[in-house]
Each structure stands twice: as C-alpha cells, then as structure tokens.
Specification:
It is a single chain. The protein is mainly β. It is built from 3 helices and 22 strands. Strands 1, 3, 4, 5, 7, 8, 9 and 10 form an 8-stranded antiparallel sheet that branches. A hairpin with a 2-residue loop joins strand 8 and strand 9.
Length: 271
C-alpha cells in the first residue's frame, strides 16, 4: 500500500470536528417564511481502498439546548467516503425550514455497519459511544426565505480512521470522525490536471502553513478539483505517490467566491 505524505494540518482540526461561521441572532422566524437547507458530503483522500460509513440521520438545531433538533433526512445508508473526492459530493438531505439561524448540525451514525478496506481486506470499524450519540458541528447557518443554503461537510477519512494494535498482535480500526463544515455560498474551487498520470499524485490547497483542501488526481486522466475554499490566495502542491517523481508547487493561485479557478496542466518531473 502506498504511503501518503502528510503536510502540516491546523492543530484545531485534529482536536475537534466543529467549525463556527458568523451568524445572525439565533431563533427561527415566526412569520411563516421558509428557506431550504441542503447538506452535501465530500471527502479528503486516504490511503485505503474503501472507507464505509453508515449514516442514520442528519439533524439541525435552532435552539441552545437539545430540544430543538429538526430532522433534515434519514438516509439509513452506507457511504464510501473515498468515492467523494475530486469535487464529487453526495446529498445527505434537503429540507424546507422556518427562516432563522440554526446553530448546529449533527450526524447520527449507526452502532455498526462501518468498515475500512485495506489491501483488499475488509475490516469492521468500531464507533466509540460518544460518536454514536451524534457528531455535532457548530455552523450558525442563516436560513433566509426562498433561498437554498448549501452546507458542505468535509469528512476527513484519513484522520477519522484510527488504527489500534499492531501487525503482530492484529490491527483493529476505530471510526472517530473529523469533519469540517463550510457554507458553499462563501467558497470557490480550484481545478486542473497533472501529468504524467502514472505519478498518481495527491493535490493540496495550502494557505500559509495550513492545508485547507486536498484530493487525489484522477488515475485515468490526471484531473483534480479542490472544493470548498474561502476567497484568497493559495499554493497548490502536487505530491506524487510514485517517489520517482518530484513534488511541484504552483504559488499565488487566487480563489474567488462562486468561481472555479482553472489551472494549466501541471507537469511533474522525475527525480
């Protein structure tokens, strides 16, 4: 199995799964106005064949306690996170909601049905009891009348799968979700292609010392897409998994809200 080279990740992302957006006053609109919330799932890449997560329900909360949870959808479905890279997304649910601010979203996971496939061998993943009660993310999502609010959930498979034990005694796997939430309306994307295709690179969008999005270039054509990026300037780093090729960086890539910045084909050279 090939080894992924990890870049520096913000420490906060390793400790928590919540990210907070600026919002307005909490509470929902009493006048009967409604808007729509749509929840999309996508993923950062990982060095596994599959990472399968079973999601029972998606809910949002419009109060400061546990009494205000509203169901968005009940998918009762398993998702292979590694199929959701390179700009691919899966709709977890969409619902019409009273206008107002919704403070949190949570994913209810099943107690079983999660698995990881490593070198063709399938292993069950145990979910600690805390995660079974719901993975909560602070979002402060402002639902406006007749407007669709799209929330992107980046489920980081590489950091969510925790290996226990060792090869001699036998390895086990835990699922401890690491998720970042982003309001799609305030983001843009970066797209491009890498050649040669057989370098099979990972591609990262880096701001300062922080990796904010990552994917693996398509193994058939070298194309990639990094989504959910806030407006600003990024370095796009192409890191081949084939060590005979060198890392290539493209600096000062500008991202604008609602747009996809198209890069010229990036060529990586052999060492």
């Amino acid at each position: 199995m090939k080894t992924q080279k990890l870049l520096k990740i913000p420490f906060a992302l390793l400790l928590a799964v919540s990210v907070v957006f600026m919002g307005c006053n909490s509470g929902t609109n009493a006048d009967g106005d409604t808007g729509t919330m749509e929840v999309l799932l996508h993923d950062a890449p990982a060095n596994y064949d599959e990472v399968n997560v079973f999601i029972e329900r998606v809910e949002v909360n419009n109060s400061e306690n546990d009494e205000g949870w509203v169901e968005i959808n009940s998918p009762q479905q398993s998702y292979d996170l590694l199929e959701l890279t390179n700009g691919a997304t899966e709709v977890l649910g969409s619902a019409e909601l009273p206008a107002g601010t919704y403070n949190q979203i949570r994913l209810i996971l099943s107690s079983d049905g999660h698995s990881v496939v490593v070198d063709g061998e399938k292993h069950s993943m145990f979910v600690p009891s805390g995660e079974q009660t719901g993975i909560k993310l602070n979002v402060n999502a402002e639902i406006e009348p007749d407007i669709t609010y799209t929330l992107l959930l980046d489920f980081d498979a590489a950091r969510s799968v925790v290996v226990t034990g060792n090869q001699q005694a036998g390895e086990g796997y835990l699922l401890k979700p690491v998720i970042k939430a982003t309001n799609e309306a305030v983001t843009g994307n970066i797209a491009g292609a890498v050649e040669p295709v057989d370098s099979e690179p990972y591609v990262y969008a880096i701001a300062g010392e922080d990796t904010l999005s990552s994917t693996k270039a398509d193994t058939s054509n070298g194309e990639f897409k990094l989504i959910g990026l806030e407006e600003g300037s990024y370095t796009v780093s192409v890191d081949p998994t084939d060590d005979s090729y060198a890392t290539e960086n493209v600096d000062n890539v500008e991202v604008n809200v609602g747009e996809t910045t198209e890069l010229e084909t990036i060529t990586v050279s052999q060492n």
